Amino acid sequence: AYPSNVRIVEVGARDGLQNEASVTTEQKISLINALSDAGLRDIEAGAFVSPKWVPQMADSAEVIKGLNVAKEVNLSALTPNLKGAEAALEVGVKEFAIFTAASEAFTQKNINCSISDSIERFKPVVELAKANGVKVRGYVSCVLGCPYQGEVEPDVVLDVCKQLLAMGCYEVSLGDTIGVGTPNKVQALLTLLLEHISADKLAVHFHDTYGQALANISKALEMGIATIDSAVAGLGGCPYAKGASGNVATEDVVYLLQGLGINPQIDLERLAKAGWAICEALNKQPVSKVSLALQAKC
Ligand code: HMG
Ligand code: MG
Questions:
Q1: Alpha-carbon separation of residue 5 from 74, 174, 219, 270 (angstroms)
Q2: Buried b (16+ CB within 10 A) or exposed e, 198-213
Q3: CA distance 28 to 62
Q4: Which ligand is nearest to the CA of 141?
Q5: What is the rounded end-to-end Cα distance, in angstroms, of the chain?
Q6: Which of 49, 79, 128, 144 gets mutated to test ligand 1 (max ligand atoms within 8 A of its CB)?
Q7: Between these two residues, 22 and 232, which has the higher pLDDT value?
Q8: Rounded to an integer, what distance in angstroms lies between the CA atom of residue 117 and that of residue 59?
Q9: Catalytic residue positions?
């Protein structure tokens, strides 16, 4: 059976815009405010990462300080180390996201250390969070394949998930960073993970590079996963995963959930408008079939 309540974690302002050089701070603020107006309640607003590595996220503090979102909105940000966590805390971020991978090669390229060193680096981040009443979310990238090493063993994914949960993450988001997964692979991975981890501690984070994200989400929902990461207008990619396209579009996920009778309390029209506005700034069209269909109707 499908879960009756599904939570969407909107990652467009971070996962989407981390790849886009030309977006101003004001445009980011407008996007996040519009996402809040559309009803999104979990919004990843930026990344406190090294500006030398990802210059696109260098204004995350300014963005967060400038927001005017509904008070129920849970704003989160990537915090790869203590420096990032301290900067996020300073602007009032109430949820940190730490991120590693199930692939050594990807972890090295992405955060310049091994998987086990990344876990060590996260310890003071989690301590700072605990001392300040901040929640911590964990990400595991490359759960269904790696751009550098290819196949990734589900056992490795399980091991990394367990470590993140044991250190205090309330949830782990499973990233198909390069969008290579198919529903049978999702099923095999989740079957293993759910033997050890309860469904309410897992989220899925699918990129749509090969057009499989909605099929994969449908499979994950069927298996009881009730938190889905997505990006308005299908924005995104990953600077350390060449060729990876955006996250599954939030508009498409909302449409799917509505069709399944799971009402996610999101105003689809407003959401699509938020997507068109940011895409105008990027000089491109949304990568969302639903958004294009809605536009065609008016
Ligand atoms: P490093 O170079 O190994 O770190 O980077 P370091 O500690 O040696 O520091 C080097 C310099 O960076 C120093 O400055 C530090 O102060 C500075 P310098 O002395 O040379 O002037 N620095 C920082 N500045 C600002 N904020 C910080 C920070 N930390 C160090 N937090 C580090 C290690 C992790 C920082 C770096 O590799 C990094 O920032 N990586 C970011 C990678 C990233 O953002 N990737 C994209 C997000 S992950 C993703 O997209 C996947 C996901 O969506 C899930 C999925 O799809 O799978 C989440
Ligand atoms: Mg991602």
A1: 17, 19, 16, 21
A2: ebebbbbbbbbbeebb
A3: 10
A4: 1
A5: 35
A6: 49
A7: 232
A8: 27
A9: 238
Per-residue confidence (pLDDT) for residue 240, from 0 to 100: 72
| Residue 130, SS3 per DSSP | helix
Spell out where 49-198 has E strands: 74-78, 95-101, 135-141, 171-176
Structure-token match 């996040």, residue found: 32
Report which ligand 1 atom has the smallest distance to the Cα of 238: 50
Q: pLDDT value at position 238?
A: 64
Dist CA 232 CA 279 (whole Å): 10
The token pair at 83 is 């420096």
In the structure encoding, which two tokens stand for residue 196, read together?
Answer: 């050890």
Average pLDDT over residues 4-27: 96
DSSP 8-state class, residue 248: P
How many angstroms separate the Cα of 1 from the Cα of each of 181, 189, 191, 212, 218? 22, 18, 15, 21, 11
- Ligand 1 atom closest to residue 143's alpha carbon, by position in its atom list: 57
Structure letter (DSSP) for residue 286:
-
- Please give the ipTM for the structure prediction: 0.98
